[in-house]
Specification:
CATH class of the largest domain: Alpha Beta
Radius of gyration: 19 Å
Structural class: alpha/beta
Helix content: 25-40%
Number of strands: 13
Largest sheet: 6 strands, mixed
Number of domains: 3
Shape: globular
Strand order of the largest sheet: 4-5-13-10-11-12
Bound molecules: zinc ion
Number of helices: 12
Strand content: 15-25%
């Protein structure tokens, strides 16, 4: 059997069944049999690696002696030769003394959002399989990201966005030559439309969490934080949460690091949601899943009624002894100005929800002043200038 890097197999996060690399493409066939659009996904697959081999390889010259890129490649499910030519990741990580926090600025990816990490792996997978088209539902950032990465690799991108997606993100999609379908309704409606499209076309579907490589792609940000932090976990990572896939990706990074013997302590993950788009927070609090009643927030990137990766997101919060909190649009707006004026980082509202979340968590005593806190900035402010 052909080996894919140190990748070993897929494992279902619902039932634990194991699958070979090309035995399945999206979800666990057993656990997703009753899935229908409008529900959180069940049977999401997790990539499992040959952890002992990874441990041995990293010990050979010392993990800190690997370049950031080489270190992340050790944990990749795809070969470097399949990666698209547009460089992704290796984004700045640094301390902001004035606010006593650390920033991982993923707005500095090529399409100005974190989503480039997932798009990069999906394009690599399409190249590996010889597939010429990728479809995707998006609130805007995954769309503009997929359009850019596909353009760099000569692959067709077919995008489904809600019609109220921010104009700058739609402009990016058009500029990169993707096929754009504007969907009446919300992100959840776009998700359904992309699922219907891929069911009847020869393409890969990049809907977030649906394809397990979307989670694997997002994992690289967690690996970078660890490596850039001197090969150790920070105390907290604060993550904006809509669908729960970035949260799952960061969690997966530290799970892989732990399984390969690189760390003992997982960072605590703080999920921050907009008040009206709080399905994962409610699920974590009550132990029972329920859709968000009526998501309407200025933080469009985290505006989701039915988070596709809700089950994994809650698992990530629990396993890391983390927490989930809600912030209001007013708090997000204030944090947007604070971040821009005190750090020089102009981020979109979903990203500045993390700073609003930090203020609340410090006020309640959840996070202490002597703890190392990382804010994950996922999208550039120029992508959404509403309110200015
Ligand atoms: Zn299963």
């Amino acid at each position: 059997m052909k080996r894919f890097t140190y990748f070993k197999q897929w494992q279902c996060t619902t039932c634990g069944r194991k699958y070979a690399r090309d035995e399945v493409t999206y979800l666990c066939p057993t656990c997703s049999i009753d899935y229908r659009p409008g529900m959180p996904l069940t049977g999401v697959l997790e990539a499992v690696f040959h952890y002992e081999e990874i441990s041995r390889v990293l010990a050979q010259k010392g993990r800190q002696n690997y370049s950031l890129r080489d270190f992340c490649m050790v944990f990749s499910a795809l070969e470097a030769r399949d990666y698209p030519p547009l460089p992704v990741g290796n984004t700045p990580f640094y301390k902001v003394e004035s606010l006593n926090l650390w920033i991982k600025n993923d707005a500095l990816n090529p399409s100005a959002s974190f989503k480039d990490r997932a798009s990069q792996l999906m394009v690599a997978e399409a190249k590996r399989l010889g597939i010429g088209e990728i479809a995707c539902a998006s609130t805007g950032n995954a769309a503009s990201s997929l359009a850019a990465l596909c353009a760099s690799a000569g692959i067709k991108a077919v995008i489904f966005c809600p019609e109220n997606a921010p104009a700058a993100k739609l402009a990016q999609v058009k500029a990169h030559g993707a096929e754009l379908h504007l969907v009446t309704g919300s992100y959840d409606d776009a998700f359904k439309a992309a699922m219907e499209y891929s069911a009847s076309h020869e393409c890969l579907n990049r809907n977030t969490a649906y394809h397990p490589l979307t989670i694997e792609g997002k994992k690289s940000a967690g690996l970078e934080i660890y490596h850039q932090n001197g090969c150790k976990s920070p105390d907290w990572i604060i993550i904006p949460v809509g669908d729960g896939v970035i949260l799952a990706g960061i969690h997966k990074a530290f799970i892989d690091l732990k399984r390969s013997g690189q760390l003992v302590k997982l960072p605590r993950l703080l999920a921050v949601q907009a008040e009206s788009s709080d399905a994962i927070t409610s699920y974590w609090e009550k132990g029972e899943y329920q859709d968000a009643a009526s998501p309407e927030t200025i933080a469009d990137s985290i505006s989701v009624k039915t988070p596709s990766n809700a089950h994994w997101a809650v698992r990530a919060i629990k396993e890391t002894n983390g927490a989930a909190i809600r912030v209001s649009d007013d708090e997000i707006n204030q944090a947007r100005l604070d971040l821009a004026r005190k750090t020089g980082v102009f981020a979109e509202p979903s990203s500045t929800a993390t700073l609003a979340g930090l203020y609340k968590a410090k006020e309640s005593g959840l996070i202490r002043d002597n703890e190392q806190v990382v804010l994950l900035i996922t999208g550039h402010g120029l992508k959404d200038i509403a309110g200015f």
